[in-house]
Design a protein that fits this description.
Elements (H helix, E strand, L loop, with lengths): L4 H40 L12 H22 L13 H24 L5 H31 L5 E6 L2 H13 L5 E8 L14 E4 L3 H7 L4 E4 L7 H11 L5 E4 L11 E6 L2 E6 L10 H33 L4 E7 L5 E7 L34 H8 L7 H7 L3 E3 L6 H4 L15 E3 L1 H4 L7 H13 L3 H17 L5
Parallel strand pairs: 1-2, 1-4, 2-3, 4-5, 10-11
Antiparallel strand pairs: 6-7, 8-9
Helix pairs in contact: 1-2, 1-4, 2-3, 3-4, 8-9, 8-10
Length: about 475
């Protein structure tokens, strides 16, 4: 297919807009944050009288403000903080911003020392003390905005998947499910032996690998993503990459693994052969001293902070019908050990006896039981469930060691009886009060997504991930999505 120069020019402009819009937004945001941080530091350093600064400090500060801002932004740019490839997902963006900021602070200090420039020490320390957290917070906020834009179908990058139909469908399922990534699957390219109109999942097959370059141009591909079975040899892969170079499309490779956190993956080049090293699952670390100490400290603090709320909620349960305040339900914990999971009672006293009268809101293949309009729930119980207040007594489970602050949801024994062998992996760690399941939709999730999130957590645990989940829990609880 012959494409004229005007069409190619329009395509390139579209590609550039989709790729560079987040980077431009990040640059403008960082300029505002850096300038604001320096200004706030300038205003606030007057209160730091212990530095005993010179009398002409204001004149010196005015002279230094512009070079400080330019130096900081230059380090951010050189570090790749505005590169389109690292934005929107993963931790590399935050790591680049933090590293560049620390290097800028070091370079500024060394420059002032060598040049004997009497920069206000209050201005220096406050600038980075204020600026670094604001930069990270700004990037986080921008990322959330970009994700919302992607979910609404804007600024999405056209992706062509290359590989065997089965591998294409697996990758397409992830990209469709995680729409916040901003990838729009426009079609597939398959080897000649697998030529078909559409893949089993319904992805249209645009052609075969022999026409990869022409198809990338025709469909305005921003990304050509190679999955398993795309090519038969490294030499063929190299030739396809050469043919795609003039199109400007980015080339991505998907290894035959999913649900592995980026921090567990390292690429080690060896004699021109990129070797991918994957650290083992972090299951054992999720049960060791650091996580246990984190649980004890966090649960103790949360009990102190929520004690008044817990007392009021308990009083409301008792006054409503005079029944017991605490409901103890046998759940399955780590390594299949049963334990009594504590909750504020939110149902009528004989709720278990009435279970058969309540229709399950899930399909038969769903292991969990849930009913949106469960008549057994009391009036105060509906409010307590909506905002997860009924789960506060589980902090005592955490202190006792049967639960963790963060982890997979604690299953019922009848649910465990229906587990497939892979799903038993969820029981390798202590169940949690909150987890990826709760911050990702809770009861609105399918069983497949529930298992996927829990297994991802079990294999990729880290203390930073726990902190991130706890931070997202507040928003999930207030939004009350999937809480019923």
């Amino acid at each position: 297919m012959i494409i004229n120069d005007l069409t190619m020019s329009n395509m390139r402009r579209t590609w550039r807009r989709r790729r560079t819009a987040p980077s431009v937004a990040a640059l403008l945001l960082d300029i505002v944050v850096v300038v604001t941080s320096i200004y706030l530091a300038w205003q606030g350093r007057a209160g730091l009288d212990w530095f005993n600064e010179a009398k002409d400090v204001d004149l010196i500060a005015r002279t230094a403000i512009l070079p400080m801002a330019l130096l900081w932004l230059t380090f951010l740019a050189v570090s790749g903080a505005y590169g389109p490839n690292g934005m929107g997902a993963g931790t590399s963006e935050y790591r680049k911003v933090l590293t560049a900021s620390l290097l800028a602070a070091s370079a500024l200090g060394v420059a002032c020392y060598l040049l004997r420039f009497p920069l206000s020490r209050g201005l220096y320390f406050l600038t980075f003390l204020i600026g670094i957290p604001l930069l990270l917070l700004g990037r986080y906020s921008l990322r959330r905005v970009i994700h919302r834009v992607h979910e609404r179908g804007r600024l999405r990058q056209n992706v062509i998947l290359v590989g065997s139909p089965r591998q294409i469908d697996e990758v397409a399922g992830v990209l469709v499910r995680e729409s916040w990534l901003g990838y729009e699957v426009v079609g597939a390219i398959v080897p000649p032996a697998d030529a078909m109109p559409v893949t089993p999942r319904g992805i249209p097959v645009l052609g075969t690998t022999a026409r990869a370059e022409a198809l990338a141009r025709e469909w305005e591909a921003d990304v050509v993503l190679f999955a398993g079975g795309a090519v038969e040899s490294a030499q063929e892969m190299r030739r396809v990459a050469w043919s795609l170079e003039p199109t400007g499309a980015r080339i991505m490779l998907v290894p035959s693994l999913t649900e592995v956190a980026s921090e567990r993956i390292r690429v080690r080049p060896s004699a021109g052969l990129p070797l991918m090293e994957i650290d083992g699952p972090s299951t054992r670390h999720a049960s060791r001293v650091l996580k246990r100490a984190f649980d004890l400290a966090g649960a103790s603090l949360l009990l102190v902070l929520t004690a008044p709320l817990l007392a009021v909620a308990a009083l409301a349960v008792k006054l409503f019908d005079g029944g017991p305040v605490i409901y103890r339900q046998i759940r399955t914990g780590r390594e299949g050990e049963p334990f009594a999971c504590l909750k504020l009672r939110t149902m009528v006293v004989d709720a278990e006896r009435l279970l058969d009268q309540v229709p399950n809101g899930y399909d038969d293949d769903h292991v969990l039981f849930k009913a949106k309009e469960d008549p057994r729930i009391t009036r105060p119980g509906r409010f307590l469930r909506r905002y997860s207040i009924d789960e506060l007594p589980q902090l005592f489970n955490v202190l006792g060691g049967s639960m963790s602050l963060v982890g997979p949801r604690p299953p019922l024994p009848v649910e465990v009886a229906r587990y497939t062998p892979d799903v038993f992996r969820r029981l390798a760690v202590r169940p949690g009060i909150t987890g990826l399941w709760q911050v990702s939709g809770r009861s609105d999730l399918s069983w497949e997504d529930t298992v996927r999130l829990d297994l991802y957590y079990v294999d990729n645990w880290s203390i930073l991930r726990d902190l991130a989940i706890i931070g997202r829990t507040a928003h999930a609880v207030l939004a009350s999505r999937g809480a019923y």
